[in-house]
Amino acid sequence: MHFTSERRLDDGVLEREFALGEIPGILWTPEAASASAAVPLILLGHPGLGLHKMYPRLVARARHSAAEGFATATIELPGSGNRPGWPALDQARADLRRAMQAGEPVSDEIIDALVLPLVDRATPEWQAALDDLLALPEIGGPVGYSGGVISIGIRLAVVEPRIVAAGLFAGSFVPRAMFEEARQVTIPLHVLLQWDDEGNDRQAALDLFDAFGSKEKSLHANMGGHTGVPQYAGDAAAQFFARHLK
Amino acid sequence: MHFTSERRLDDGVLEREFALGEIPGILWTPEAASASAAVPLILLGHPGLGLHKMYPRLVARARHSAAEGFATATIELPGSGNRPGWPALDQARADLRRAMQAGEPVSDEIIDALVLPLVDRATPEWQAALDDLLALPEIGGPVGYSGGVISIGIRLAVVEPRIVAAGLFAGSFVPRAMFEEARQVTIPLHVLLQWDDEGNDRQAALDLFDAFGSKEKSLHANMGGHTGVPQYAGDAAAQFFARHLK
């Protein structure tokens, strides 16, 4: 991992772009973070629409987290943004779009093709990023994972012991195979569900919440549609991380 | 309404018992509440097991609310505590116990007999208490309703315009007729559900949450069983009232 750019935001947050091999990423650290005052880290998941497109929402989450004393970092997902194209993923996305536009139910085959290869490929990349991020003197632990493709969050929660708490967004398709993995999750979970999210299968989200093996898990369902997560829901998620990462 | 006793708790909260006709009640006000600094009020619902039995939990909620700057008040439910017996309610409770002990499904008839007369009788009592409480110079508005028999909370939310926000506990049986009333609720709602509450019908609780007509409604589902609501869930409910009553 090497840094490719660095700037200070107006609230003192240090924003550094980096490259992890071919993978672009961004790291945000609170002004006060230093080798003698290392801070916890939250990995910021996102839906894989490209970091550039997602930047406004990501930097807003990063600023909030920095105000709470957390560093945050994210990396580009495979097949997205400026990373090499991934024809199989593009095909799965096209199949999904076609099914949704035709008003057809989205088949298990489409969901599996869309999500499972992405989870398989992305998870070790996030782990490799974690290796390098935790080697920075100003980044300590513990580590949380927040948002993005929920199946990546599930896989990371199962395979990555350095992640001690996860805030997940029940807003994307979940392959049936991930329900089994969900049973293996034992870390504290904070799950957001937009109750009136037209593009999301609410019952599947409730079944997934039920499946999680964690003794401490909370579901926060709110109104506002897929992109209308209310401010107070973000505050509640921040409090969840404050409880578990401090 | 007249006060029958008065004492200061160690945190400065003023606790006053009162009688509203034959109905006993308790009012807690923060130390700083006065005619020139009137405070909002939260009505504390409870499950109707008698105020004496519920006192430890009620006073804990009252102290937390007082620390947030809220007065709280509660009254005994009809047929409970030291109030005159109510044979029909006792019969419905006995029928419920018998069905549950036999492992039978609890019929709509039992639920209706248990809850609907209680809602009909209790609601105007809470409204009468509200009349007298709001006449006290140290109690201003707005008014919230919190917890207890959820069907009483629903009815109050529909018929009592002085209640501007309600925190409800999805932990008791709900007659089918109350689902229709739930559609008429428009005030902001914060609904707690204990996901692993053995004695509660989870699907009915989710259906009820879906039925509420409120544009702002949040469901917070947590683990811990019926009586194991985690501390952070109480904090989240307090933040809900702080958003709406201040």
Characterise this structure.
The structure is a homodimer of 246-residue chains. With 246 residues, the first copy, chain A, is an alpha/beta fold. Chain A has one domain (2-83, 123-245): Alpha/Beta hydrolase fold, catalytic domain (Rossmann fold), CATH 3.40.50.1820. In chain A, 41% of the residues lie in helices and 25% in strands. In chain A, α3 crosses α4 (150-159) and α5 (176-183) runs parallel beside α6. Chain A starts with a strand and ends with a helix. β9 (217-222) of chain A pairs antiparallel with β9 of chain B, so a sheet runs across the interface.
Gross morphology of chain A: globular
- Give the low-confidence spans of chain A: none
CATH superfamily of chain A: Alpha/Beta hydrolase fold, catalytic domain
Order of helices and strands of chain A: EEEEHEHHEHEHEHEH
How many distinct folded domains of chain A? 1
Order the strands across the largest sheet of chain A as they lie in space: 1-2-3-5-4-6-7-8-9
